[in-house]
Amino acid sequence: MKKFLINLGLLLVVVAALMAWTALPWLGVAALAVALALWMALTRSGRQAGSVTAVGVGTLRQRLGSSSVIVIGIAGVVGVLVALLAMGQGFQATLQSGGRDDTAIVLRGGSVSEAQSVLTRDDIDAIEQAPGIARGGDGKPLASAELVVTASLHKKGSDDDANAQLRGVDDTAWALRPKLKIIAGRTFKPGLNELVVGQGAQREFAGLDVGDEVKLGRQGWKVVGVFASGDAYDSELWADRQEVAAAYRRGNSAESVLVKLTGAAAFEPFKAALATDPKLKVEADTTRAFFARQSETLAKTIRVVGITVGVIMAIGAVFGALNCMFAAVASRAREIATLRAIGFRSVPVVMSVMLETMLLALAGGLLGALLVWLVFDGYTASTLNGFTDVMFQFKVGPALVWTGLKWALAIGFVGGLFPAVRAARLPVTTALREL
């Protein structure tokens, strides 16, 4: 019963330590590292722990195979976890980078995306007259009624079809998106079946080079330009809204209205004016908030999948570390017993085994993070956002690398704790009799 309670208490300590570790910022970890270094330098027990750790690390060459299991296993955990989180972060950054605080998007009330919204000509006219909208040099409001439809295209190097987003825009759409630049060809001319395509869509789909003809809906369209914006618009095709509406039989309707405000402070009065207009049933939001909401669901799903896969792999890595460290403790039983017999206490023995395991875990974490950074940082991929493909880049930043290293050290902590406790509990007389 006593042994069971001790083991239960140890398990509770592990759970509490892991919960505290996950919430610890890098400054807290740095403080812990400094405290450990001071303990090892200034106390007798610390110096003993350093001596035993040095002996253990010195024998790693003799245990190269088992030590490699720990390093490679943890590198795999960190690599998979950081890669999946980088995917979610890259997707979220791509969508959110198209948002601003001084531009607003207006949809039909209750709509969560442009595809679910329908605005009539009267709605569009009323929105454009709302207060707070900036005006161009010609005195007209900087507002663009926009229509989004799904276009089926062939992927490059494949016979598979995929959906791209075709956006019909008004002339003012360019002024509302200052980051968007034509990098090849020219803009489309209103009244003609002409397209400009995002650089991401051009890389992903066949037949979108300048001068190509592509069939969308029931009509043929000529690609006349390529644009770059560095956000989700790179995945789209743009054309004149009236031509898109005619090709897809949408009449004179739109799905959203994008407006340029006189400033970020003008949003609340603009929103209030729309809400108090009895003829309108619309909802307005800043484009920054709108795009953040659009990316939230998929990014959260990717994070959940990444953490779930990481936990499953981490459990396997923990068992691998436990197995290797138990074997290491067993092979050094006489050595540990001798140290204890000549005056080394249990704490230095426990700390030495823990430090050895966590050093191996740190090596595995650094290896996994380095491989992911070399392979995936800036890697371009695509995923479905609703019914259309969105191109984005993986982003392996310092924060994700730090997350991976924290996971690696947590695995090392759990994998080394139980073998360390066993080493400290091993009776000296029993260990000295072992060959």
UniProtKB/TrEMBL annotation:
Source organism: Rhodanobacter lycopersici
**Coiled coil stretches, renumbered:** none
Q: Where are the transmembrane segments?
A: 26-43, 64-87, 304-329, 349-376, 396-418
Membrane-topology descriptor? Multi-pass membrane protein
- Which stretch is the leader sequence? none
State where it is primarily located.
Answer: membrane
Superkingdom as given in the UniProt entry: Bacteria
Name the record gives this protein: ABC transporter permease
